[in-house]
Amino acid sequence: MPSEVINYKCPACTGPLHFGETSGKLECDYCGSSYTLEEIEALQSANAEDAEKAFAEAEEQIRQDQNESWNLSQAGSEWGEDAEKLRSYSCPQCGAELFCELTTAATSCPYCGNVNIVPGQLSGELKPDFVIPFQVERKSVVEALHKHYGKHNFYLPKLFRTENHIQKVQGVYVPFWLYDARLSGEGRYEGMDSVTHREGDYEVTRTRHYDVERAGSADFVKVPVDASKKMPDNYMDSLEPYDYDKLAPFSTAYLPGFLADRYDESAEDCAPRMQTRCENALSSKLRSDVNHTTVTQKSFQAHIDRKEAHYALLPVWMLTTKWRDKNYLFAMNGQTGKMVGELPTDPVLFCRNVALLTLLLTLFFRFSGLVKLLILWIRYL
Question: Residue 204 domain-assigned?
């Protein structure tokens, strides 16, 4: 049986609603009406009883029509193991029967373009605790991509700017685990201080070695780890930081207009990545407290006391471009606008720019040396 889906429609004209990144309201593209999340959720609740009654009447009609239906006992075959990988749902806008992956929580109908929310994917233990709404508008994403190109003129092929074609721009709510934890650690370090002086015709260097121990603890709040196997971990890590003061209690009313996935990696599965990040941060902090010229870490041990983890959906714009038969993936933080992605490299352009930069630096230092000699000569006169 197809899953029930939630479809947010405009109470004024029945057109589809989408979440407005700037206004923070659900907006209708057809009549221009806008509604707060509280208003729409109240209307959804009021209509739930009517929908349940209509569904019961429809089921009764289906039972009455079954006696006159075609014999389909020999048609098709069992799904088998494939049934465990897919979920079916019915688009409430056009009635199309569709399939999606088990981790898909919000998607769009390929026939009418309507955004549908599959509530079963976000209910029970799978329901997110928090969400950060999109604040960067779609029209700003492409502009930001071209600015991103401009930051890499040093090696970016010139033709890439004009010949690459944007294949897709999609806003996605990516599942994240946000961890709160306290970490305690101890480290052993070797410190070295060197002093050089002249003794007659000889230059003497004396080096002193120190065995140093440091211990400490730190509290970490809302350490994010993406919980989707589909998303590149290095991209998601690079999009940080998010402003977690803007976390809002989860509501499906934030989802219209965007895709959303539920997590397919548990909090336990993602915990090692969180622990590694916390250990590196504490180790770096303890090492910075060793006041010697050269510091070498000999050992480090950490103990983590887990407090709690929260399930949140964070906004990410995903962009795909194509150039010379190769796809390039970019991701943008849907709250701050920070962008990351892979870019092609022109080796000839890169080497030429390096050579030019080396020449300019050489001339600069030589000119600086001549200026200093000129100043000394003037003072001598």
Answer: yes
Number of folded domains that form the chain: 3
Expressed as residue numbers, the domain containing 323 is 138-152+161-344
Closest CA to 255 of 90, 121, 145: 121
Token look-up 């934890």 returns 181
Tokens 């070295």 map to which residue?
A: 192
CB burial string 72-98: b at 16+ within 10 A, e below? eeeeeeeeeeeeeeebebbbbbeeeeb
Does 12 reside within a domain?
A: no
The residue assigned the tokens 């992956």 is 101
- Asked if residue 7 is part of any domain, the answer here is no
Confidence of residue 326 (pLDDT cuts 50, 70, 90): confident
Smallest CA-to-CA distance from 293 within 210, 212, 193, 211 is with 193
- Cβ atoms within 10 Å of 38's Cβ, excluding its own: 10
Give the closest residue to 51 by CA, choosing from 6, 16, 87.
6
pLDDT at 17 over 90: no
* Domain contains 132: no
At 69-126, the pLDDT tens digits run: 444 444 444 545 555 666 666 676 766 566 566 667 667 665 566 666 665 666 555 6
Q: Pairing between strand 294-323 and 326-333?
A: antiparallel
Q: What is the tally of helices (H) and strands (E) in the chain? A: 6, 15
pLDDT for the residue numbered 74: 46
User: How far is it, in rounded angstroms, from Cα 258 to Cα 110?
Assistant: 14
DSSP 32: -
DSSP state of 129: S
* Type of residue numbered 61: Q
Average pLDDT estimate for 202-228: 92
**Residue corresponding to tokens 């003061």:** 245
What does the alpha-carbon distance between residue 283 and residue 148 come to, in Å, rounded to a whole number?
A: 33
229 and 143 share one domain: yes
The token pair that represents 226 in the structure block = 């993406």
Whether residues 147 and 271 fall in one domain: yes
**Cα distance between residue 25 and residue 18, in whole Å:** 8
Closest by Cα among 135, 131, 168, 130 to 333: 135
Does 108 share its domain with 225?
no
**Residue 297: which of 213, 188, 208 has the closest Cα?**
188
Q: How many CB atoms lie within 10 A of CB 246?
A: 12
